[in-house]
Amino acid sequence: MAMSRDEVFQKVEAVLVDALGVDEDEVTEDATLTGDLGAESIDFLDIVFRLEKSFEIKIARGELFPDDILNNPDYVENGRMTSTGLQQLKKSMPHADFTEFEKDPSVSRMPDLFTVKAIVDYLGLKLEQSGKTAGAAS
Amino acid sequence: MRWLWIDTFTEFEPGKRAVAIKNVTRSEDHLHDHFPGYPVMPATLMIEGMAQTAGILVGQARGFREKVLLAKIRIARFDDYCVPGDRIRYEAVIDVIDDAAASTHGTVYKNDTAIGRVDLMFSHADKATADLDMPEHNFVFTDQFMDLLTAYNIQRSGGEGIS
Amino acid sequence: MRFELIDRIVELEPGSRIVATKAVSLAEEYLADHFPTFPILPGVLMLQALVDSATWLVRRTSDFAHSMILLKEARNVTYKNFVKPGQQMRIEVGWRGAEGAEVDFSGSGHCGSVEVVKARFRLRQFNLADRDPRLASVDRRVIQAARTRFDLLCQKYRQGEKAAG
Questions:
Q1: Which among A21, A42, A43 has CB closest to C120?
Q2: Residue C148, H or E segment
C-alpha cells in the first residue's frame, strides 16, 4: 500500500497533536519540536512510540533523534560539535537539514534540527526502505 | 497515612498485564477534605492507583533494575466518581518497554463498571534523565511495593518477562 | 493526611487565571513512603495542586454555585523535575474556555525559574441535588466549607485588595 508524502504528513500531524497537545495549524513543516511545539524529552519518546504504532514500523532508539551523539566526548567539545561529530550527526540524520545548524554547531542548538519536516522525511526514507511508499523501487 | 493506593493485585501476567483493586473507605483521612460533608475519591489518587499498578508491572518486567518514575500522563479521563463503599479496579497493560521508557494503557472500573481510562509513560530514570539530581540506588521499589507481589509468588529480582 | 494541595492564593482574576503556591515540607506524611530515601512530591499531587488552583478559580468565578468540582480529564501532563522538601512550587493556571458545566484549563508549576510540571485539564462542576434533591443540604454544607477555606487561602490577596481600594 503506497503512501504519499502528504499522507505521511497527515499521520505525523495527528501524532504530534496527540502527543504534544498542540493545534493542527501549529504543525507546520518548519516547526521545531522543542522551540515551536514545546516538546520535552519524554515527549520525544512518546512521539517515537506513537509513530511506531501509526506506521507499523520499528524505529531503533537514536535513529530518529540521535541524542547518544551528544554524550560522546569525541563528537562534542566545549558545547560545540567537533567536525567528526558533525559528520557523524549528518550520517545518522540524513533526513535533517543542516544548513542553519552548521553556521553555529552548538549543542544547545541541536534541538532546532528536529523539525516536523525532518520527521516526515525520515519516515519517507524508512517506508521506502521497507517498500511502503510511492518511492519504492518496483 | 501510607502512600499506597492499591490494596492487592488480583491478576499479574509478567511483562503483559496486571489488575489491582482498591477499596474506598470512609476512614481515609484525605476524603475529609475532598469534600467536607461529602467524601469523593479524588481522580488524581485514582491516577496514582493506576500508576502503582502499571509501575510495578513495568518494574517487574525489567527485574526492578531501573528506577521507574512517572514521566507523563498521556491521558486520564473519568466519567464517574467513587465514594466510600466502592471498589476500584485498575487494569494496566504494557504497550512498549525499552531501555529509556515504558508506555502503558489502562482502564479504571468502579464496582465492575468501566469509568475511566489512564494511559501513562514511565521513564527509566537512570538512562533517560541523566541531568536530574537523584541518588544512585533504586529508591522506587521499596518493601511496601514489593510485598504486594508476594501474594502472586512473583520474583522480587532477576525478573522474568520481557527485557 | 490533609488533602489540600495549595497553601496560598497569590493572584486571581475571575474567569481568567489564578496563581497559587505550595511549599513542600518533610513533615508531609506521604513523603515517608515517596520515597523513604528520596522524598519528593508525588507527580499526581503536583497535578492535584494545579487542579485545586483551578477549582478555586471556578468556585470564585461562579460565586460558589456548585459543591462538586471534579477532574474530568487530564492530558499531556508532563513531569520535568522533582520538587523536594524545602522548595516552594508556584502554580499558574489559565482558564481556556467553558463548555456547559465543563471548563478547560492549562497550568504549570515552577520552582524558581525551573518548570516542574505542565498540564492541560478539564473540570466539571455540579450539585448533588441535580440528581437527588434530598442532597441539597449536603451541597450547602460543602459550599459553606469551601467559602471558609477560600477566605483562609486568600488572606494576603484580600489585604492587597483593601490597600488598593
A1: A21
A2: helix C136-153
The whole model's pTM is what?
0.92
What pLDDT digit, counting tens, does each position of B70-123 carry? 999 999 999 999 999 999 999 999 999 988 899 999 999 999 999 999 999 999
ipTM: 0.94
Find, among B17, B46, B16, the residue nearest to B31 by Cα.
B46
Q: Which residues of C touch A42 (CB under 8 A)?
A: 78-79
- Separation in Å, CA of C4 to nearest CA in chain B: 7
What is each CA distance from C121 to A62, A118, B157, C52, in whole angstroms?
A: 32, 30, 38, 12
Query: How far is CA C61 from each of CA B96, C12, C105, C141, C155, rounded to the nearest angstrom?
Result: 43, 10, 14, 19, 18
- Asked if C79 and A42 come within 8 Å (Cβ–Cβ), the reply is yes
Surface-to-core class of residue C132, CB atoms within 10 Å of its CB (0-12 exposed, 13-18 middle, 19+ buried): exposed
